[in-house]
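BUG-475 | component: ligand-complex export | severity: low

The export step for FE3-S4 cluster jobs runs without errors, but we want the raw record kept on the ticket for reference. Input record follows.
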Amino acid sequence: MGNINNKKLYIESYGCAMNFADSEVVATIMADNGYTTVNSEHDADIVFINTCSIRDNAEQKIRHRLTGLKGTKRKNKDLVVGILGCMAERLKDQLIEEEKLVDIVVGPDAYRDLPSLVAEVDGGSKAVNVLLSLEETYGEITPTRLHSNGVTAFISIMRGCDNMCSFCVVPFTRGRERSRDPQTIVEEATDLFNKGYKEVTLLGQNVDSYLWYGGGPKKEFKKLSQEEKDSSVDFAKLLDMVAKVDPTLRIRFSTSHPKDIVDDVLHVMAKHKNICNYIHLPAQSGNSRILDKMNRTYDRKWYKTKVERIRDIIPNCSISCDIIAGFCTETEEEHQDTLSLMEWSDFDFSYMYYYSERPGTLAARKYSDDVPLEVKKRRLTEIITLQNNMSARKNKEREGTVVTVLIEGKSKRSDDDFMGKCDENISTIFPRENYKVGQYVDVLIERSTSNSIMGKALGLNEYFEKETLEKALVS
Ligand code: SAH
Ligand code: SF4
Ligand code: F3S
């Protein structure tokens, strides 16, 4: 532990927030073995690329990046290159055969093994560990925050996924679902708060199925002993526990699966002012036949009921969505169902893709990828156009209202402006004046576009900055 070997590590991450959170765990594991993280591959002895396999173009991007890395390796013959994450898990040793510059291939559950894999490479061989685990959560490891703004941070609450949506590679790359000890989650949130962080996002592929009853692989709730049931913590309880770390620590979470989100969670959200009014609730499609083929285990009606429950219990809650255009056998009418569900749901924003067949998935094995590429692209364009129009309209409706914003840093466009998210997770931009990063301010919205709202700060938010305001009055 803590031995100094003066070696330098550069980590680059792709894919979802969970991959970025994992890279921070990797940085800690490596730091404990004497590696310092640096910001450029040119200063590094080791380069780790944490990869994503979700769509074919995600993998192409990484292949391209590896080609670029060849030049760096030419200059530094001793450079060690490691491929981490989902693409490593999916392709295993094949990656070493195909990409000659790769020395290490390591899957998402094998990061504790990284220091010994690096030692193997230093001994002149290539090293692979892609074992998946039923229990690994890296629970007690405090992540080293990389590229942090010092205000917002991710906390992984679970790993893997048991859902087997037919289009999705994640269950194959990240293994079975398991939940992390809630005590370690609360400790991580407390530690972040004590270090000055103001917002945490709890991460899992399906946060609503979070369930802790003492560790070990996931079991069905009904098969638990009475003792395990009594001491169990579900997602609603976990949210409540994290919200109580401090009333001024903002809480977000992602992703909610429509089949699992329950009223208890919505009530906890409504109860705590510091849990944001925002839910990411991917529908994927608006047509029940397609949803069945996707193995999402809910239909259009069920999805609509969930949206209604959210709107009933948390007025003003914003909702975002993921949509896949042109899944196997999707007809024009079925595509229209997706558009109409989006309109009905009035999503604040969405992440939208066309279907990309992933080798080994249920859909790849059972269905033919028969919607022509140009049809997929045209449907996707219609979906994006609809969402952009809805987002623009919804943001326009925010003009004249006052939103609470946590300041994350300077705006990309101008050093004179600050950027932060409002409670409903919309990027908000306003002149800096004398405000500081990490403060909560009330912003009067004056202008908007489809992806951001702009205005003027009226002052510190009374609820979140109560202590600051009190201190100011005393002095
Ligand atoms: N666990 C989350 C999703 C994680 S993947 C959930 O269940 O909602 C993020 C998004 O990528 C998915 O919601 C889906 O919209 C998209 N996606 C996954 N596999 C895909 C594929 N094969 N082709 C296109 N988009 C895909
Ligand atoms: Fe993939 Fe479905 Fe799991 Fe999400 S819930 S990660 S889409 S299998
Ligand atoms: Fe990609 Fe793996 Fe996340 S496939 S989206 S990095 S879980």
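Assignee comment: Attached the raw record above. The chain is about 35% helix and 20% strand.
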